[in-house]
Write a structure and sequence with these properties.
Order of helices and strands: EEEEHEEHEEEEH
Number of helices: 3
Mean pLDDT: 92
Radius of gyration: 16 Å
Shape: globular
Helix content: 10-25%
Distance between the termini: 44 Å
Largest sheet: 5 strands, mixed
Strand content: 25-35%
Amino acid sequence: SIMGGYDEALFLDKQGHVVEGSAENLFLVSKNTVYTPPIFDDILQGITRDTVSTLLEKELGISVHEQSMRRTQLYQADEIFLVGTGAEVLPVTYVDGRKVGSGDIGPISKKIKTLYQQVVRGENPTYSSWLTSLSFKRK
């Protein structure tokens, strides 16, 4: 196949920094610390990225550090996940044929995925102000 059996591509900038997926922002977990590329690395300043960063810090007590990332850092990561409107929170288990961590979805990825889904589906009243109700009439 064109993508070598992978589901998503990661993009590098001119300096060789990993910046994002095709429609998602990137988060990397190393030694219980979370990193994401900074805005000045020319990434999409996504709403989902901001939401996930806030939830990680306020609800899970995990600091999010903005840092330019080299491709080799992906190979040493304990966990990697992508976030975006369509993807929501998408754990990454392999990069370039190499396992990320144990090759399974990591604990931080699992927690933030569940928490994010609860928030956007209105199941977490703390963040109900983040949501806008829509009603549709059928003809």
